[in-house]
Amino acid sequence: MSRAFVKEQEDAAVEELPDRLISEHANLVTPEGLKQLEAEVARLNAEHTAAQAAEDRERIAATARDLRYWSARLASAEVVTPPADPAHVHFGSTVTVLRQDGRKQTFRIVGEDEADPAKGTIPYVSPLARALSGRAVGDVVRVGEGEAEVLEVR
């Protein structure tokens, strides 16, 4: 087998990265989430340009794929401004709950791409966010195997 044939196969493999899956849910974002999307697209544009300048085919393919994903997410973003009345849990709310085991947890309900549970943000499509949606202080919701009481909504 000639070396040229092997190189051609390697190049084809690099260029055929599968696209990232896009959620079937509406792309709701907070105003901060929109800024994050814009920043990610700008960062990837710069990274893609640098990869092209360096003729790094693997990095070009990876940044092109990520750029397609984040550009699509930016184009489909629907900014949701939280209502002025925080009486009920809604998209963009910060909610403090008391779990059955005594743990207090605070979460902000945000869009899928801006969610990071380790930093206290959960996607609006998560089971916890769905259970909390529309609830008010004092309401108890089923969460996994237990329950949680809504202590605060802001």
Give the SSE layout.
Blueprint: H1 3-15, E1 28-29, H2 31-53, H3 57-76, E2 78-79, E3 94-99, E4 104-110, E5 121-123, H4 127-132, E6 140-143, E7 146-153
Parallel strand pairs: 1-2, 4-5
Antiparallel strand pairs: 3-4, 3-7, 6-7
Helix pairs in contact: 2-3
Q: Can you describe what's shown?
A:
- The protein has 154 residues and is an alpha/beta fold.
- It folds into two domains: 77 residues; 60 residues, Transcription elongation factor, GreA/GreB, C-terminal domain (Chitinase A, domain 3, Roll).
- Helix content is 40%, strand content 21%.
- Strand 3 and strand 4 form a beta hairpin.
- Helix 2 packs antiparallel against helix 3.
- The longest helix is centred in the N-terminal third of the chain and has 23 residues.
- The radius of gyration is 21 Å and the shape is elongated.
Name some characteristics of this structure.
2 domains; five-stranded mixed sheet; elongated; 7 strands; alpha/beta; 154 residues; 40% helix; Chitinase A, domain 3
Please give the radius of gyration in angstroms.
21 Å
Strand element count: 7
What structural class should be given to the helix and strand makeup? alpha/beta
Strand content: 15-25%
- Largest sheet: spatial strand order: 5-4-3-7-6
Which percent range fits the helix content? 40-55%
Number of helices: 4
Kindly summarize this structure in a few lines.
By secondary structure, the protein is an alpha/beta fold. The protein has helices at 3-15, 31-53, 57-76, 127-132, and strands spanning 28-29, 78-79, 94-99, 104-110, 121-123, 140-143, 146-153. A hairpin with a 2-residue loop joins strand 6 and strand 7 (146-153).
